[in-house]
Amino acid sequence: MSAQLVWESRVLPLTRSKLITANDKMHWAARARLTKQLRQWGYLLGREGEGVARLGLTHARVEVEFAYPDRRRRDRSNLAPTVKALMDGLIDAGLLPDDADRFLDGPHTVIADHLAGKHLNIPMYEVHVRVYADTEKKESK
Hints:
Number of helices: 2
Largest sheet: 5 strands, mixed
Helix content: 10-25%
C-alpha cells in the first residue's frame, strides 16, 4: 500500500497546559474546555488556505507529529486525548465523512526527530498534521 501526501498543516505551537494526556487528573469541566479548544484548533487548521474539504477524500491515513521541548522519556500513547480532539476538529472541517475505521487509518502519533523551540522563553510542544491518500486503490468497501 503506497500513500501520497495530500495535505499538511502548519505547525501548531502548544504549551503543556494546552495538552490533554491520558495521565492527567483534572476536573471534568476543565477537561471538556480543553477538548473543545483543541477541537476548534483542529477545525481551524483544516479550514486554512483552501481547506481540507476540497480534497474530497473517502479514506486517508493521518499522522499527527509532536515535537517535544526536551529529551525526557515519554509515552506517545498518552497524547491520545489531544490527538482525538484535533482529529475531531479536522473531521468537522470536512477532511473525511467520519472518523470511523472505514474512512480513517489512524490517527498515528509520530514523535519528531527535532526539539520544539521556546517562545518567550516558554517551553512549547509543536504539533504538525499530515494526511496521506491511498494511491493504489480507491474505497473498496
